[in-house]
Amino acid sequence: xxxxxxxxxxxxxxxxxxxxxxxxxxxxxxxxxxxxxxxxxxxxxxxxxxxxxxxxxxxxxxxxxxxxxxxxxxxxxxxxxxxxxxxxxxxxxxxxxxxxxxxxxxxxxxxxxxxxxxxxxxxxxxxxxxxxxxxxxxxxxxxxxxxxxxxxxxxxxxxxxxxxxxxxxxxxxxxxxxxxxxxxxxxxxxxxxxxxxxxxxxxxxxxxxxxxxxxxxx
Length: 218
Description:
Elements: E1 4-7, E2 13-21, E3 28-37, H1 44-47, E4 51-55, E5 62-66, E6 76-81, E7 86-91, H2 92-96, E8 123-133, E9 138-148, H3 151-161, H4 164-182, H5 192-212
């Protein structure tokens, strides 16, 4: 559903880009849905009762916060898309359905979401965008996920990174950064597969996972 993903280099923002082209010979009415399950804490079972969702009146984005998070009580997470015509829900049960699964959510069989948001729900954020494509026309859908220090910071991040151009600029910045960083050391062996691993993937994994995130054992 969201095949192209990348994160901004210097901000807590991730883009999910979906490119659609209509080569069917007919006009098509389509929809794209972005879906997030919020944790906003160490484990989902502990944090779920405390997560509250709302639609930000200034940007239209879906906000989520957990005031009972002892480490980051003021943080505001957000989920948004580059189209204002949408239906939304913050209720995971509505999206999945009773005993539902992500491979076949009940909400995808409904024409629209209810718009239910607030406290006391099994929290999620789902945005459905409906659009029409003429034959030969293409469209780029961008979903943006991020977190700000507070609501003001979240809005500033949204305004800074909204739209397809912002997503493309962020992707090119990340490409340039990693090409420069990983290119500082180059290993050349007769085995091309070793060159690819050593000069790219292994260095990236060591920096991003072991040294910075402290989440890997390299």
